[in-house]
Design a protein that fits this description.
By secondary structure, the protein is of the alpha+beta class. The chain is about 60% helix and about 10% strand.
Length: about 475
């Protein structure tokens, strides 16, 4: 009786251990994993917020640009409408030419905006391309890692399936044999020797079952770990893919904008060339009729900038009378620094330097004044129409600092340094479009001395003298100093 009771206790113990292990396995298999999902959601939220802020700024900039373009288009339309009206009755008049020049100005502004926009977009494209290349490499690496992880999970699942099937077979055997077969086997023993023998057998089978269950649990845990890693990789892959797709769409949009702008620029340049030629032709005809010669208003801006830079560099390098060395009147050359050193031939901190004479004696009529032409375009001096070969004189005492003979811009022109006014500003005058020049660099001249003969060289519609006054290189209204 004691042996049967002892066998019953042992059988119950083994059965309870088996049931407990199965329950633990089921609980682990159903445990949810949420950490990765939470982190991914937070990152996506932050990324979306940053993108919205950046997008808002770009939209504002784009809106401002569109407003500027609309304003220009409106001005262009009004100019074209006015030109159409004037063409019917007064084509070739100053009003028509001025309106045409205004249209040219609007087209220039439009070209500047479009070209600047293209440059800005190209800079964005240049900075975007390395990022796209980097993200493509990252995406390819993630894709490869995802495929490798999927293959690993497939191998693990195959191993798990074989172990799991073995475990299921074992459970089916236990189920078919009945719930109390272990107890019956132990209680049916006739002696203690048979009991111990059967117990060892049952123990061995139970140990095998436990090992099988443990292996199932380990394979399950390994699969869950790999799946979590796969989910994280997939999340990174999707995020990287979304970023790359967005960048490629942005790149395509930017490239299309540049192409569209380039088409408009090309069309506008054709229109611009035609309108400039028409403006120059009509202006030449008009000034020939009324003898009010001046400059053509559509000269290449790069040429103008190059000439102006050369002039400014020269003026900046001038030595004031106070800085100059004492030299004899016969010393008319530059010193080793390239600056003029003759002190006695120029004014020093005196407003007497501002009392100038007209550059073309007997010709005080003005065809174009300072600071604009009648069209509104900038004009840095005063134009005095006069017959070709008229005497051009120095407006004040000074030293010739420039003699240039160009076939564009100022044409044949002279610059004279007169010293400094009461404020210490350097005073320089410029005489342009001459047919010939009668002085040389470094030569001292007196007020009223002839320095050139008038003409129509460079950018000119006919014979006239373009006259400028500059203080420290900055142009001023010459009429304020002529008497």
């Amino acid at each position: 009786m004691k042996i049967r009771f002892l066998s019953l206790i042992m059988a119950l113990t083994l059965l309870l251990c088996t049931i407990g292990q199965t329950a633990v396995f089921a609980e682990e298999e159903q445990s949810p994993t949420t950490e990765t999902t939470t982190e991914a959601t937070t990152e996506n939220s932050e990324s979306t917020t940053k993108k919205e802020e950046s997008k808002l700024t770009k939209e504002e900039a784009q809106k401002l640009l569109e407003q500027q373009q609309k304003e220009l288009e409106k001005n262009l339309a009004e100019a074209e409408k006015k030109l159409a009206e004037l063409e019917k009755s007064s084509k070739g008049t100053a009003e028509y030419i001025d309106t045409l020049d205004q249209k040219i100005g609007y087209i220039n502004e439009q070209l500047t905006i479009l070209e600047n926009q293209n440059m800005s977009i190209q800079e964005e494209i240049d900075s975007l391309l390395p990022s796209i290349e980097k993200n493509e490499k990252e995406l390819n690496a993630l894709s490869k890692a995802v495929d490798e992880t999927k293959d690993e999970i497939k191998r693990l699942e195959d191993k798990f399936q074989s172990v799991y099937e073995a475990y299921c077979i074992r459970l089916r055997v236990i189920y078919i044999s009945g719930e109390f077969n272990i107890l019956s086997a132990l209680l049916s023993c006739n002696d203690i020797s048979s009991l111990l023998t059967r117990y060892e057998m049952i123990k061995s089978v139970a140990k095998s079952d436990t090992q099988l269950l443990k292996e199932v649990q380990e394979k399950t845990a390994e699969i869950i770990t790999k799946q979590d890693g796969l989910n994280e990789q997939l999340a990174k892959y999707e995020k990287a893919k979304a970023t790359l797709d967005s960048q490629k769409n942005s790149l395509e949009s930017k490239q299309k904008t540049i192409e569209k702008n380039s088409e408009i620029i090309a069309a506008n340049k054709v229109t611009l060339a035609t309108d400039r030629a028409e403006s120059d032709r009509l202006l030449a005809e008009l000034t020939a009729q009324n003898k009010q010669y001046t400059e053509f208003r559509n000269e290449d801006s790069e040429l103008i900038e190059a000439v102006e830079k050369e002039i400014q560099d020269l003026i900046v390098g001038l030595i004031t009378p106070d800085e100059a060395t004492t030299a004899t009147a016969s010393d008319k050359s530059k010193d080793s620094t390239g600056s003029f050193t003759t002190k006695s031939d120029v004014y020093s901190k005196s407003d007497a330097v501002l009392n100038m004479v007209y550059p073309v004696p007997g010709h005080t009529g003005i065809s174009a004044g300072y600071p604009n032409y009648s069209s509104g375009q900038y004009h840095g001096g005063i134009d005095f129409p006069c017959p070709k070969g008229s005497k051009v004189v120095a407006a004040q005492d000074g030293i010739v600092i420039t003699v240039k003979r160009l076939n564009y811009s100022y044409g044949y022109y002279v610059m004279i340094y007169h010293g400094t006014d009461a404020k210490g500003r350097s005073v320089v005058t410029l005489y342009a479009h001459n047919s010939s020049i009668l002085v040389s660099v470094g030569q001292s001249v007196k007020k009223g001395d002839q320095i050139a003969k008038s003409g129509s060289t460079g950018n000119s519609t006919g014979p006239h003298c373009h006259f400028e006054v500059r203080f420290n290189g900055t142009r001023a209204n010459p009429r304020n100093y002529l008497s």
